[in-house]
Design goal:
The protein is α/β, with parallel strands linked by helices. It is built from 17 helices and 20 strands. The structure holds adenosine-5'-diphosphate and magnesium ion.
């Protein structure tokens, strides 16, 4: 990293190291950001981004290295210290009190005497105006959208007078339009002289919003580059450590025909609230139906209800004219309907952690079990083939999957479903946290399935990927389908509007 800049950095990390048990989450990391600058922190899942930022906000303490603010070494032993030093962090999971208003949340935990409510409201509105935030100080958190809650988090930090702002994957929960609003706020902060660090996986966002990019790989700071002088291709290569090709195919399938019909599907969430409200769609053989939506729009309920894991409240799921309602998960698998869901924390992915790949394959191959004797030989062969085909890094197919890295576990998970020769393959977030190469391996696999005539439903997060890979895209918002569109025709903006609740006719009609 060059130190040719005469301006003093707002915050600098020098040789920061953090170890959790046997994992070196940060390995002598260097990073600095100046006032009036937006720095993107880029790296694959698990590369140590959140850990590093948590040390700047006083949640973790470094095992080695220094943190300097305005050129002076500091010890940040708690979030209160961070507050006092002018550091504010917007976490991935918001820390707001739902039953309180925006205003109450904003002042929560501030020291000293609070101004009178009237004055407080004026202060908050003044900050909002200055930075272009849209907020009603009296609105309760539970009445707000995710994007509004994020705005409250930002205000909370600004109210405390933070000059150094850290945002951990803030756009993961936003539609493209909401992301643009957030970026406008960040640019305004930069104008006002704040130092901003933003974590995002999305390369187009990095290119758009940042001045410089620091890349972490496996806990180490690999390089810092000037955004204007780099490209998504170069950033990807820095991130994964080798050359990559970024191209997604969309092969044509001869004769897509309807296979799975979902009629007026209603499903409840575990808390009794509506998870899916009157969902209707068809899934065809030989297509990839992409499913878009901000996190928590009903994706989980859709997967789980088709897989028979949660009850259908109303409506029907017809597979070759047979209703799946009331069938057990095993019966549904035996009909050839397979699902793999990678949750946000990547735990509970439907594998038994203490077992090796072979036993995990056996667990799911009900179709092949004849009588009480499980056939280990074919399962072992299958596991070995998968290791080769998907480039799974494991010393042995019998090593407990808990000892494998998250990305490799994910490949096992999807690979197992594919090896069972499904007719319908439902896959949710299959590339979550995978490196770029592995992601493209997965896209290829899905395309191969489609070309074999499998009906593929792909629930994704990255709209660019959804638009490139899918044949059609179904958009979910608050448990409802707001549109089903041709992926070759739709734009990111149109999908974004539907993700926020606009109807298909409204969005696609004004072309
Ligand atoms: N509290 C913790 N305990 C143990 N390991 C952790 C903890 N937090 C993070 N890790 C590990 O540290 C590494 C870096 O994680 P993290 O900083 O969350 O990465 P990123 O934010 O880049 O995805 C990962 O291997 C993760 O499993
Ligand atoms: Mg993280």
């Amino acid at each position: 990293m060059s130190d040719t800049n005469t301006e003093r950095p707002a915050i600098a990390c020098k040789g920061i190291t953090k170890v959790f048990g046997t994992v070196v989450a940060n390995d002598s990391v260097d990073l600095q950001v100046k006032y009036g600058e937006i720095l993107a922190l880029l790296g694959e899942n698990g590369s140590g981004k959140t850990t590093l930022m948590n040390m700047l906000s006083g949640i973790y303490h470094p095992d080695g290295g220094q943190i300097l603010i305005d050129g002076k070494e500091v010890v940040i032993s708690s979030p209160i210290d961070a507050d006092a030093l002018g550091i504010g962090m917007i976490h991935q999971h918001f820390k707001l009190v739902e039953v309180q208003s925006a205003m109450e949340n904003i002042v929560l935990g501030t020291k000293g005497k609070l101004p009178k409510t009237k004055q407080l409201r004026r202060d908050i509105l003044a900050i909002s105006e200055k930075f272009g935030l849209e907020i009603n100080p009296d609105q309760k958190i539970y009445e707000m959208s995710v994007s509004e809650k994020q705005t409250v988090e930002i205000l909370k930090v600004l109210y405390r007078g933070a000059r150094i702002l850290i945002l951990d994957e803030p756009t993961a929960v936003l539609t493209p339009q909401e992301t643009q609003k957030l970026f406008a706020i960040l640019r305004k902060m930069r104008e006002e002289g704040a130092a901003v660090i933003i974590i995002t996986h999305k390369l187009n966002e990095v290119m758009e919003i940042s001045d410089r990019v620091t890349i972490l790989r496996k806990g180490k700071s690999i390089d810092t580059v000037i955004t204007k002088e780099t490209s998504p291709q170069k950033l990807t290569e820095l991130m994964v450590g080798h050359e990559v090709t970024l191209e997604i195919r969309r092969p044509e399938y001869e004769d897509p025909s309807d296979l799975l019909h979902v009629f007026h599907l209603k499903v409840d969430k575990p808390d009794g609230s509506a998870g899916l409200k009157d969902v209707n769609f068809v899934l065809k053989r030989g297509e990839i139906l992409g499913v878009a939506g901000v996190a928590g729009s009903g994706q989980k309920e859709l997967c789980e209800s088709i897989a028979g894991l949660i009850p259908v409240k109303e409506g029907a799921i017809l597979y070759e004219k047979k209703d799946l309602k009331g069938k057990t998960p095993n019966e549904i698998i035996n009909m050839g309907i397979h699902m793999s869901f990678v949750p946000e924390d990547r735990l509970g992915m439907g594998l038994v952690a203490s077992m090796g790949m072979v036993d995990n394959m056996l667990l799911k191959s009900y179709k092949n079990t004849k009588g009480p004797f499980v056939r280990r030989k074919p399962a072992r062969k299958m596991a070995k083939e998968l290791v080769k085909k998907l480039d799974i890094k494991t010393p042995s197919v019998d090593m407990p999957v808990r000892m494998m890295s998250g990305g490799n576990v994910q490949k096992v998970l999807l690979g197992r479903e594919i090896e069972s020769r499904p007719n319908v393959l439902i896959t949710a977030y299959p590339v979550r946290g995978l490196d770029i190469n592995s992601s493209y391996t997965i896209y290829d696999l899905l395309n191969q399935q489609k070309q074999k005539g499998v009906a593929v439903m792909f629930i994704g997060e990255d709209l660019d990927v959804l638009l490139a890979l899918s044949d059609r895209i179904m958009v979910l918002c608050h448990g409802e389908v707001t549109g089903i569109v041709d992926a070759k025709q739709a734009t990111k903006e149109q999908i974004g509007l539907m993700m926020a609740g606009a109807g298909e006719r409204e969005v696609m009609g004004h072309e």
